[in-house]
Structures are given as structure tokens and as C-alpha cells.
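Exercise 7 asks you to align residues with C-alpha cells for two separate proteins.
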Amino acid sequence: MDDGKPPRYVIYGAGAIGSAIGGLLTGAGFSVVCVARPAYADALMRGIVLNLGDSETTVTAEAVTGIGELNPQNGDIVIITTKSQMTAVVVDELTRLYDSALRVVCLQNGVRNEEVARRRFENVYAGLVFFSAVQLQPRAISLPQGLTVAVGCYPTGVDETARQLCQHLASAGFDAIASAHVMAMKWGKLVANLNNATHAITGYWLERGMAEPEMRKLMLEVREEGLSVLDEAGIAVEPPAGEASPIRIRDMTEKLRLPPRSSGTGIEVPEDRRTYASMWQDLVLGRPSSEADFLNGEIVKLGAKTGIATPYNSALLEIVNRMFDRSLKPGIHTPAELRDIIRTSAWRAHD
């Protein structure tokens, strides 16, 4: 790092993921400042309770409510944790404070954020977040499924910054992997995240979705459509065999063919231990925009280019965007109703 000293980490977009990362890095002794909405910045300064499944910890971090409050420092590393629809705005704001040598880590869903950052900055890193975070009120975050991240150079490779960032994250309690294949992992996670819309529309939490056969079948069909499009486009969705990876989307998808372990367990998960997709949370919290264009929309656009029909992802994209436009809450269709809508749309498209 610059001058042999650890960098200051600027977490831009400290919601559930960003606050957890910023708080745990701060607790491990690193210099951190978070950029967050006012209520979330206040919560970070006062203390946020992280529920880690089998334990709880309270974290704090320095926080500001706008980029104008930052005092740029030599050696800063900016970790972007906003939704994909905000990336262009964030990058534009960062160019007002930093030169093109700034190190930028896109620790976000979607696969186009790094492209946007690379247009303005020379040192861009791909980041995979492979854990779920539920934050329905600013001062409490539930992290029920571990703390796994991966970081590598964009578009490929590993350097000292990626390695040391992973070391710092590991010292803060994360399972952190420095990998040359993070973009392939992110394409794989995009396939998994296609069902964020499915959960938002049905109102299901993740454990309930995995426990019900009808929902598992729907999730399988959505993922299979996505994989078909990406295979036709020649896009790798996994690192090469033998390379370390927290996500192997083909194996994960095949497991959806199996019956659930127990149909009751997912439904009986206590409310405070449920895993809700980020899109579900956005609808419940009344946020104005959806990330679906950067998830399901990616498959729809690539499907059009490759000549692969995308009735599942097209329908999910249309429905969830309508829900955001009309401020609807999750749960407007059951999985069976949603499958019927998709099938009807596909039939009409071929009529």
C-alpha cells in the first residue's frame, strides 16, 4: 500500500452490505469512512447490531451523508456497495474528488459496474459478495449465511491491492478470497440473483422458497433460462475447474431438481432469522428503483442478441418494475400464479 501504511477504506453506499463491511473493518482497526443515507450514517455512528446467526456484535464506523463531506486522502480505496442503478452517479461524483489512479472496488451485484468505473479510473477491482444481509431498520443487520467475499483485478488477474484487501477483510472476520476469476463468479451470482425478482413478486423469503416444490421448480426454470442465454453468448459463469470459488452455479442449479429436505423447515424460520432478497427489502422499505434491469434485464438483452427466448426473465422484469412504479409490496402472486403468467406470455409470443 502507499507509504507502507494500510489505506483508508471509503465505503460508498453503506446500506446492509456496506455497513457490515465498514463496521467490521473498523472493529479490526482499519481506517474507514462510510457514505450513507442520513438515518444509516447516524446508525453507524451510534452503533449497529450485527446478528451473525450464532452470535451478535455491535459495530460502529465514521460516516458522512454525502461525498462533499469527504476529505480525500492519498491511498484511499473506494469500495462501492450501492445498487447497480447508482453506479454511474457514484463514479461521476468520485471523479470530482480523485484522479484517475484511484483504486475502486465494485463490491456489487450485476456485471456492468466495473465497466462503468473503468471508463474513469485506471485501477478497478471486481468484487463478489456471497452472503445475504437483511436490514429492515437502520440499527440492526442480520447476516444469516456467512461472510464470504472475493476480490480480483478487473477484468482478470490478482495484484497486491487485491491480496492485501482480502487479508484485511479476513482479519475483520470475512472469508475472503483473492482470485483472478471474480468476474466469472459474478456472472454465476447473477444467475442466482435472477430469482431476487421471483422472491419479491411472491413475497417469499429464501428459506421458504427452498422448502416449497412449486417455488423450487420456478426458480430452476428461471436459472436454466439464464444459463442457456449465457452459454449461447459464450460467457463463463464459473472459474476453471480446480480454482477456488465460493459459488458453482451449475451445481447449485442442479440441486433445485431435488426435493426439499423438509417442506416445513423454511416456513417455520423465525421472522428475525429469515433471509430476504435485497429486492424484497427495497419494496418493503419503499425505495423508488429496482436493480432488476441489471439482473433479469441483462439476460433479456443478451437473449435478444443471441436469439434465445427469455419468457421467464422478461416477465419477471416487467412485473417487478411495475411493482416499483406502483409502490406495491411483495406477495402479489403465488409461485403457481407466476408460472401461469410466464407460460401465457410465452404462448402468446409464439402464437
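Second protein for Exercise 7:
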Amino acid sequence: MVAIQPCALLLLIGPDWRIEAISANAAMLGDHRPSELIGQPLADLIGGQSVHSLRNRIAWLADGESDVFEFGPQWGDVSLDIRASQAGGSYLIEAELAVEARLPDAIGMVRSMSDRLGGDDPRSLAGQAMRQMCTLTGFDRFILCDRRGQVIAEDGRGKLSTVSEHPEITTGVHLIADRDAEAVPVLGDAPTNAFDRAAYLAPSDGERDRLTELAVASSMSAPLRIDGERVGVLHAHHGTPRRCGAERRSVAHLFAERLVARMARCGWQP
């Protein structure tokens, strides 16, 4: 059974904008019985104006691997950060509870962080960037790996075990806010592979055991690409439950992709 972490609401929406699958925590948006929402118009859950805004955002999707975001919209009385992607002929929607207000200048933050990188040695650039990442997000440790999972640079604090002996490869964004949080089932008859690109899927028992061994309670991972080709993976680990805001994560991801492009121009071979 597909399950999601309790900090996020998961929806699979058909091309007719009816709900095909929904996580059992839909009651966070009001007095709803999730099982009764399946097959109903999405507007019955979030309202017509919110559906209109979401449709406009989804129109930006470029291909099957792209994502679009909307930071801070109100669905009912709840402020959320929305991530949408394609899932076959349907749309996969993750709506997580917002943890911070909108950033005053997200693009300016990326430029400033990039400008503070000095030199032309790829590993030195990576090390500088990982230090900035920890400051930006508050995570205990950031790790940059190549596309084979080998560590290029890491920086952080605390007593987390090193990941150099535990490389992991990810093809999509994966977030764990609390390793031990109780999973929330997803209701509906959609095929399991429709949820492959969901970022907040509940961790498996094996993944939970691995994180426990590393003394990691929360993590995030994201692939890094140059011209659409995956060249590396960014990992963040924290010793206690933690969730970085979606817009701040987007800043970190954009900065990291600018970083690997600069490393490549300085001679790095991913």
C-alpha cells in the first residue's frame, strides 16, 4: 500500500480534474471523509478559485520529469506549499503544510550565494557551497555526490555518522521530515507507479533502519542536472526531525545546479 508522511497531503487528479486517489489526512482541509472524495471534482475539496490557480500553474509543466511549485496558497484555512508533476495522463499533487512565510528575494539569494563562491577548483567550490547550504537550510550536514554516488564534498556539524561509506543514488526528490512519523495511507485504485515521483512517500522499513544507523532523523535528497543530464545528487541530513520550507529548498536546489555547472566549466568530470 502506498503511504505518505503526515506533513503532506497527496492527491492524484485525473485529466477531468476529479480526484483519483487521496491520502487519508485530507481532513486537514476541513470536515471531509477522504474515501468519499474519490471520484469527486477537486473543486469540492479546495474550491474553484484554488483549482483555477493550480490549473494555470500546471500549464507550465514541460515534460514528464518537470515539476511546478506554488508557495503559500490558502486551501481553506490552511497555508500550503504545492508541488505538481505529471503521472501518466494524471497529475500528482503534493501539498505540504507551510513552515515559513515567502522569502523576500529567492532569486537574489541564489545569485548572492553563487557570487560568494571563490576560485576555480571544483572540490573547493563544492566544499564552500556545502557550508552555505547548511546555513541556508539549518540542516546538520550537506553532501554532494557524483552520479555514481561517490562523495565529492560534505560539510556540517553534530555527531552524524559519515556517509562516505554509505553512498545512495536517487533519481528524484525525496524528503523525510521525521523518520519515525506514522505513515498515512493513500486511498484509491491508482497503480502504485503513479506515485513514483512523490517526494514525501513514507520511508520503507529498510530506509528507516539505515537512517537510524546513521543517527539521521530527517533528510532530503535531490538529483542535480546539467542540460537535462543527471550529473550528481545532493543530500542533507539532520539529527532531529526537521522540515525546510519548500521555497527555501528550491533556492538550495537551484544554487546546487548552478554549482555543478560551474564545477563542470572548471574541469570537473561528473
